[in-house]
Amino acid sequence: MSRPPAEDLIRLRERLQPVEEGAADLPWARERPWRGETHTWLEGDLLVVDLHDLDVATSRKVLQVVEAEAPHLESGAVAFVTGRGRHSLGPGVLHEVMRRELALIRHRHGWGHVPSGSGRQVLLLDPARAPARVTGRLPWAFWAGVLVFVGLTTLAFPPLGIAFAVLVLAGILWARRVDREERR
Question: What percent of the chain has pLDDT over 90?
Answer without folding.
Answer: 38
